[in-house]
Amino acid sequence: MSSQLRVAALLVVLLFLLERSSAQLNATFYSISCPNVSSIVRGVIQQALQSDARNGASLIRLHFHDCFVNGCDGSILLDNSGSIQSEKDAAPNANSTRGFDVVDDIKTALENSCPGVVSCADILALAAEASVSLAGGPSWNVLLGRRDSTTANQAGANTSIPSPFENLTEITAKFSAVGLDTTDLVALSGAHTFGRAQCRTFSSRLYNFSGSGNPDPTLNSSYLATLQQTCPQNGSSTTLANLDPTTPDTFDNNYFSNLENNQGLLLSDQELLSTSGAATISIVNNFSANQTAFFQSFAQSMINMGNISPLTGSSGQIRSDCKKVNGG
Ligand code: HEM
């Protein structure tokens, strides 16, 4: 090979590596352009928690529902418009996802300090971490550098986000479709250690489970009685129950001991332990016995989820209003 050819080949390899690295996220992405980004996000969330302790839970759920649809690209935040069919109207989100006002407050605070710099997709990732650590859970270095989509995918939101009525095989397949494994599924389900769920998401377990005429046999009987009081037959389908009946607003590993006590609220929660022979069982038991193991896995799995198909480099845009495409 002539030396000129060799230099050209080296250049091609270098360009390839550069391109690849620009498609990856990193923890210092805003260290020059918006050095206080994490504390700004955290400050707004602290405020929001004072008016409603549920807000942190609602924010991490937004990041999850964002990442499972076209990757972590802020698509869930777009409102309906001429070209956008909002993901907010998809079945898993309609009358359910919340916290959008807090995202807007964070965006306003960031635009004041570092205009045009921090993406809405990164706001969701940062808000998820701040919400977990403010509730007593682990902290981790959030990887950053995502950009915002100019499109939404309502149909994708209807098909890709797991439903509380699906069985473990179906839910595992939805995680696997975005590159997440069984440990990610169990660890991330541990986010149901805080926040609320509406009666309509679990009432099928309370009276006539799968047409049996009886409640779900995997429900602890005194927990069942409490839930039947909260969600009477013919009562309101939107009444709220705590996902974790023991420590509703704290991020801890009680979610997993609840499962061991047959106190999983959603069918999809209890299935992690009650599906016979499932690979999830030993992971649940480990996280129940060892909060440190849960926190470590949770942080790693949040990073894994946050890495789902981000837009980077010159793809997408930095929206100036999370609800709208720039200029739209
Ligand atoms: C494994 C599959 C999952 C299913 C089937 C599922 C389903 C649900 C459902 C039905 C609700 C209640 C919604 C309502 O009643 O309006 C809920 C709430 C919640 N989910 Fe999940 N979820 C899953 C995984 C996750 C993951 C991976 C996270 C985050 C890492 C998460 C975080 C939350 C939080 C924090 C809430 C409470 C939100 C609030 O209070 O506003 N979930 N989930």
Structure description:
The chain contains 13 helices and 2 strands, in the order H-H-H-H-H-H-H-H-E-H-E-H-H-H-H. The protein is mainly alpha-helical. A two-stranded antiparallel sheet has the order 1-2. Helix 8 packs across helix 12. It binds protoporphyrin IX containing FE. Protoporphyrin IX containing FE is lined by residues 54, 57-58, 60-61, 64, 96, 98, 162-164, 171, 188-189, 191-192, 194-198, 201, 243, 266, 268.
Describe this protein with a few key phrases.
328 residues; mainly alpha; Peroxidase, domain 1; Peroxidase, domain 2; 2 domains; 13 helices; globular; binds protoporphyrin IX containing FE; peroxidase activity
Question: Summarize this, please?
Answer:
This protein is mostly helical. The protein is 47% helix and 2% strand.
Distance between the termini: 53 Å
Strand elements, count: 2
CATH 2nd-level architecture of the largest domain: Orthogonal Bundle
Bound compounds, please? protoporphyrin IX containing FE
Shape: globular
Task: Kindly provide the name of the CATH class of the largest domain.
Answer: Mainly Alpha
Helicity level, as a percent range?
40-55%
- Find the structural class using helix and strand composition: mainly alpha
Order of helices and strands: HHHHHHHHEHEHHHH
Query: Strand fraction band?
Result: under 5%
| Low-confidence sequence ranges | 14-22
Question: What's the CATH topology name of the largest domain?
Answer: Peroxidase, domain 1
Radius of gyration: 21 Å
Strand order across the biggest sheet?
A: 1-2
**Mean of residue pLDDT values:** 95
Binding site for Ca(2+) 1: 66, 69, 71, 73, 75, 87
Disulfide bonds: 34-114, 67-72, 120-322, 199-231
Site (Transition state stabilizer): 61
Binding site for Ca(2+) 2: 193, 244, 247, 252
